[in-house]
Design goal:
By secondary structure, this protein is an alpha+beta fold. It has helices spanning 10-18, 110-117, 137-143, 182-190, 220-229, and strands at residues 22-24, 27-28, 43-45, 48-49, 57-62, 91-92, 101-107, 125-132, 148-149, 152-153, 158-165, 168-175, 193-202, 205-206, 215-217.
Length: 230
């Protein structure tokens, strides 16, 4: 509830509770995971009343050169710089690396985000990958291989050649998971240098109508579609 209200991240909210800074119905609560009813019980942090925010779901076209966090200690542009005015403190559902552009979903609905990211869901993530070199059949086979990331083998990606331009090749890549820098590591495994990478679709959501740096709220139809998948 504290995270949903935008008070803090879930981890920081746990620290606030453990340190005795949270009151429920006038009583200090230091036990994590206590169930509350915000409509009947007052919740306070450092003596200030907390109200739950409505759930907000944002589709964002992340540009290259932007970190997928709400703040960057190094001072680089962050996602939060672009989604002001969304109506809530939303956070990214998963991440894209600094030099990757494309579809991002942001929300303050933690249960919704966790369900989309759970490995059992196998939510499709589609990418457009541009590499240096003419990808041949052998290279295509290597791109489709399982690789090891953080001690675990990935599920094979679906990879198809979109077009060739001289010594450059454009590829469509589809993943059922989202390991750290997975597409870039696949390209490295296959022996190709990544020139550009963009995520074109996430859980069926595309960037249609959004230029880099723009965002919009999900439509009711899109939310229903995602809920049906859940």
């Amino acid at each position: 509830m504290l995270a949903q209200a935008g008070v803090a991240s879930r981890r920081h909210a746990e620290e606030l509770i453990s340190s005795g800074r949270v009151r429920v119905a006038g009583h200090v609560v230091t036990t994590l995971g206590v169930r509350v009813d915000p409509e009947r019980e007052s919740i306070e942090v450092d003596g200030r009343r907390v109200a739950a925010e409505p759930f907000v779901y944002v589709l964002f076209h992340k540009p290259r050169g932007v970190v997928s966090t709400m703040h960057d200690p190094a001072g680089r542009p962050a996602v939060a710089d672009y989604v002001t005015g969304s109506g809530a403190r939303v956070v990214p559902v998963g991440r894209l690396d600094f030099q990757t552009s494309g579809v991002m979903l942001l929300t303050n609905d933690g249960a919704f985000a966790r369900s989309l990211l759970h490995p059992s869901r196998g939510v499709l993530k589609e990418y457009v990958l541009k590499v240096k070199g003419a990808v041949d059949d052998a290279g295509l086979a290597r791109l489709r291989e399982s690789i090891e990331i953080d001690g675990r083998h990935t599920r094979p990606a679906r990879v198809a050649i979109s077009r060739r331009e001289g010594d450059k090749t454009w590829l469509d890549v589809v993943l059922h998971e989202g390991k750290n820098r997975q597409v870039r590591r696949l390209a490295e495994h296959a022996g190709y240098r990544v020139m550009r990478l963009a995520r074109s679709r996430f859980a069926g959501l595309s960037l249609e109508g959004l230029r880099a740096g723009e965002w919009r709220h999900l439509t009711r139809a899109e939310l229903r579609s995602l809920e049906d998948e859940r």
